[in-house]
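Researcher: Quick sanity check before group meeting.
Model: Go ahead. Protein one:
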Amino acid sequence: MAMRLFSSSPPPPLLSSPATKTSSAALSSLRLRRARPLAAAAAAGGPEREDEAVGAGPFDRRMEEIAKKVPLFEPEMGEPAATADRPLPINLELWLHRAKVHTRKYEFADAEKLLDKCMLYWPEDGRPYVALGKLYSKQSRFDKARAAYERGCQATQGENPYIWQCWAVLESRSGSIRRARELFDAATVADAKHIAAWHGWAILEIKQGNIKKARNLLAKGLKYCGGNEYIYQTLALLEARAERFEQARTLFQQATQCNPKSCASWLSWAQVEMRAENNAMARKLFEKAVQASPKNRFSWHVWALFEANQGNTDKARKLFKIGHAVNPRDPVILQSLALLEYNCASPNVARVLFRKASQIDPRHQPVWIAWGWMEWKEGNERTARSLYQRALSVNSTNECAARCLQAWGVLEQRVGNYTAARRLLRSSLNINSQSEVTWLTWAALEEEQGDPVRAEEIRDLYFQQRIEVVDDASWVMGFLDIIDPALDSVKKLLNIDRPSGPARQGNATSTAEQDGTTTMTPAAAGELPGSSTAEGSSTANLDSIRSAEGLSTSDLDGIVDPRAPYTRQPESDLDVDGFIRRRLGLDPAELDAVLEGSDPRGVISQRRTRRLTRKPLPLLPVP
């Protein structure tokens, strides 16, 4: 009878109450799923399983209770904290702008903090990674820049072409040509319409002497992106190198039709006309460049150099002063003006201008080199040596350092220090082994010392190691392999008949930032290595493809529309005085006062001083 007091049926499972189900449905569902296997096991196991359940220790029962309280998966938990608490999207734009301002002020730590916040809340946006990589590159922290780009490619799943392209430019500048090609290829795969990737890749191949490959890449850029000013401009400069000036003019005209406000296209075209000795046309193009971008420092600078080479000293001096008034922080304009004054037998005025340019930017090497060259010509060898040494203290491994060492070697050769001259020339060749001037200077030094055999060996060594650039005429077949060989299909694919604006998918100017050189030749300018440099005046500057010497270009009839022949630009005489009064707010009579009264240490852009005071926003009524 006593045995009947205990039921042999298994105990009911521990289920949640109905109130709990109504209050937390997801958690109750998970607890039900955990309780059912236990009840089924107890029902199927009989007394033995019941004994095992009853005989469980306190530790096992405690772990079971903890397992019931901890959910395995809850879809209702929502997004991560960084995404759930994400600020408004306008904060991303504000933080990126503030980071850019901090970078301009060399406040790199503050800019880095802002970019880290952008990447924390918006990891899928590629702009913070691009800005951070450029920030590290500006500080010469290239390893961290690569890490930032790699992190950005992973965060965007490789679909952002801007990150690939910036990474490729970094590798190209570092000398990793093979890696740069792979990254440019990845950028074009991510977005075939990213014009900056095609153009930057083509510039890389031009520097390496692969003219055929560069043309194929430019043709692909036209195919996928349509008419683009930078593509047409680079093709025109290649044609100008081959002295096919009519073809180059047609391409330049198409470039200016794509973007009439492109100062770079007008300046490149003007330099080509200068090379063709068409000076009247070059002057008209310089006027158009100034009208397209009145505050562009390169337009006034290159135009002034042109007038100086033509012998128009007064006009060149006036253009230099206008350029300095518009861009008071540019040391290159003052450097060129100093060389012009020295050429006009005013070395004291030139010294004042050189000193002012060096105070504006003490790290601008060409200023120190040109100043040292002038002091050497004036017979001040000790001052020249100190100035050359100051230039090398800025950077002793770049192209400017190679030119500085070559100029210093010539100085030591002229004063009779042949051992020091050889050492300096050898150091220059260690930096730039392709400098013909340095090799021939060294050979002339050996001949002057009475060793013609050694001089001939040096010349032979130069011809053996120099890089030959050959333009393969079979590039047309490579172009036709890409698109339909029929001319009508070519026009349709390249959008030649329809004028199109510049592509906005990529900033080709920031993509392939090249250093062009424009030299104003004073007396014995062939001995001046520190020529005035207009840095970055064009992404496809005539000197950015200096390695393409001696190429023989094939016909570009497949790219240029034969129904759009070159038409001469209309004649226009620009009133410079009236133009600067109307567009720049400058008084021509006060240009000398602006030049003499500007303080290099506290110079402020006149554009800021003329800026109107900002009116306060009206107060809205509070509801």
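Researcher: Fine. The other one?
Model: Protein two, sequence then structure:
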Amino acid sequence: MVLQPGNVGGGAVRFARQVVLGRWFMAFASMLILSVSGATLIFGMYSKELKSSLGYDQRTLNTLAFFKDLGYNVGILAGLINEVTPPWFGLAIGAALNLGGYLMIYLAVEGRTARPPVWLMCIYICAGTNSQSFTNTCALVTCVKNFPESRGIVLGLLKSFTGLSGAIFAQIYLAIYGDDAKSLVLLIAWLPVVVSALFGHTIRIMPYPSRGDSGSGKSSAATATNQAFFHFLYISIALAAYLLAMIVVQKQTSFSRAAYAASAVALLLLLFLPLVVAVKQEYRILKEVEESLREPPTVTVEEPSALQMAAAPGQSTAIEEAEAEEAKQQPSSSSSCLGSCLKNMFSPPARGEDYTILQALVSVDMLLLFLATICGAGATLTAIDNMGQIGQSLGYPANTVNTFVSLISIWNYAGRVASGFASEILLSRYGFPRPLMITAVLLLSCAGHLLIAFGVPQSLYAASVVTGFCFGALWPLVYAIISEVFGLKYYSTLYNFGTAASPIGAYLLNVRVAGYLYDVEAAKQHGGTLAGGEKTCIGVQCFKKSFLIITAATAVGVLVSLVLVWRTRSFYEGDIYAKFRDDGAAAAKDLLASGDSAPAAGKPRKDEDAAESTADEVHAGPKVGGEAHVHAE
């Protein structure tokens, strides 16, 4: 950045403003917000406290887990609100729900309030986790709209931070509260609120930057964008490796409070390291804009032909007649408008175009994706939610079980990153369809379910790896397919319809299958009843039948996903991102042909005037080739 003497302070302030208001700082802020938005994944770390403090049996605990998943995944309200309000408003609603829900759970577990009935606890945990649907919708959907050509990478990267959030919470709570599972609930109550309050105002949708008309301009811009995301990826890998090392070391040795605090400080440094990448990208953008403004503009005067001038009066008359005819044909009542909407509901556009909400909901593609997600997400989520009880039933030490739960966050992260980046690379280079990636993920998850079902000695380590990886890998694929097939216009709402499949699967497989069969086995071990006594089941048989059924359900999901692969094969064989490149080029041409290019016909703007441009103007992208088109009237 070139700064004139005496203007260093002003230039630095303007650049700082550009950074804070820029799309890359928005991406960094989204990472921070999502890194504390995955508390649902560590339910196993405090579920035993809920069970013992409130006297619940396994089926009641699984009912709480279902409402946890219901709140987290049913974000249709969050999507609809995000369609009509700025993202910061949805983040504020989410912060309020998070604080209210989890704080009431903490007070109940600590005994500071009267023991609430089960239905009220279900409301508390549903409200608390529903806050995460607001943060996910507002931060993630906004990022996808700001980087539409890199949506697979964006989804994988941002969801990977959600996957790491469980391990992040574990490290921070050990540093602040020590090994106290009840205080973990308190940390979940206040930490996301603080992060949203600090960074929520920077989350906003920005104009999509033009890439230029030339192929080299598009290629260089896309390369620079992908390089930045790969830098974010490398930082996230370092963060995951650090968390993995801390989990292993803390299991092997005894840490003091000071050691926990030191590890938390190092964790925070890694979390803020992506800010360096954001600043570097904004500096590159600023240099590109300054260089484009220094180039002398080329003025092209286009004279209308005589034939066009002669035909102009007739054309205007024809246009007026067409407009009048169209006005007559417009619906004159709300009932006819409703009938038109219902008629169009079953006449969807081509795949990749913007579907309406109703068109997407009645689509066969959405139904197939929804069913496959019910089977896949419901099965893996059942394993994650019951990991504490699975380890206990198989005789693993309590410390080891907590390690499993923490490691699930790491493998969850690995799955999200791998599916996001790998699917984008395979799709762009080889035309490998994303629905086929879902098929592969579901097949892999079957192996983890079978390891749990048969209780192979020491197999829970491998089962936790496979389960966490597959659960994480599934979601970036589902979200990317929804955005690609049904468009981005109503993505905030359609994104949340996709997540609604998870609690349905969790209720069927977790509550109705795993919870019920566990209590049946526990009753057999304790005299045929669970009333007022020990509610723990010990042995392989506690979850064997459950996970055999879960494996069969996942196999059904594999078959359904193959049908989706067959239906979308021609769509994924084409260039699914051509629309965004064409729209960007058209917007650039319109900008050059509009009055914004008028100053170029006179005298070029000086560098001092260019420095006064706002951060939004910087992010609209430099003018292509320094050319301005002036149309003579």
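Researcher: One line on it for the slide.
Model: The longest strand covers residues 298-302.
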